[in-house]
Amino acid sequence: KMDDDDDDIPQLSSHTLAALQEFYLEQQQREGMKTSQGFNQYSIGSIEEDWQLSQFWYSDETASCLANEAVVAAGKGGRIACVSAPSVYQKLKEQDGKDFSVCILEYDRRFSVYGEEFIFYDYNHPLNLPQNLLPHSFDIVIADPPYLSEECLHKTAETIKYLTKGKILLCTGAIMEEQAAKHLGVKMCKFIPKHSRNLANEFRCYVNYASGLD
Questions:
Q1: Which pTM value belongs to this model?
Q2: What dihedral do alpha carbons 201, 189, 68, 110 form, nearest 10°?
Q3: Which PROSITE patterns match (predicted)?
């Protein structure tokens, strides 16, 4: 005879169950979109944000604007590096066929699906880069340090200065203005970047060249 000890089994409240069902349904819908015809592996959201890695994707309009700015700044046949800025990388890849090349330096190994253009990057080791990533070999570097701290900006700045021939496009919080000028010699633009989800911190763009973002 089996014991009727159902009382020991934890029961989820109807509210929690409904929330879980909604979550799974949304997941299924997203997967359905991905497998349906015409899904673009480079579209923003194809790899979802991981907040534990301090990831916040740009809105479609912001990513497009920054990608277009990078293409113009890099010039014909230019090389673009996206440091911790995957949604800009994805927008650049949507412009496949244009005369530029791009690579993505990113801590999140999910982006390795993009093949040889993916370079594993940990800002704690700013110059731990592949040998074939030559110094000053990129016409422009776009960077979005994952944390709003001077330590993170300082270390990311080492990477940026190693990679760039000169042009820098930095995206970070408005509170980092002084540190951005100190470590990279960049100035705040008028353009205000937006994210697909609203952030608590005011976000801004900074450049060290005459850009189209003013």
A1: 0.75
A2: -30
A3: N6_MTASE
Q: Which residues pair with 58 in a beta bridge?
A: 195
Q: Is 79 left (phi over 0), alpha (psi -120 to 50) or beta?
A: beta
Rounded to the nearest 10°, the torsion over CA 68, 74, 75, 78 is -120
| Secondary structure of residue 207 in the 3-state scheme | strand
Q: Strand 164-173 relative to strand 203-207: parallel, antiparallel, unpaired?
A: antiparallel
| Whether the Cβ atoms of residue 205 and residue 170 lie closer than 8 Å to each other | yes
C-beta atoms surrounding 19 within 10 Å:
12
Q: Residue 95 corresponds to which tokens in the numbers above?
A: 């412009």
What is the C-alpha separation between 189 and 55, in angstroms, rounded? 22
Over residues 7-58, the pLDDT tens digits come to: 555 566 677 667 666 665 665 555 444 443 334 554 444 455 444 444 567 8
**What Å distances lie between residue 30 and 35, 116, 174, 213, CA to CA?**
9, 26, 33, 33
Cβ(150)–Cβ(174) under 8 Å?
A: no
* Domains of the chain, CATH where assigned: 78-200 (3.40.50.150)
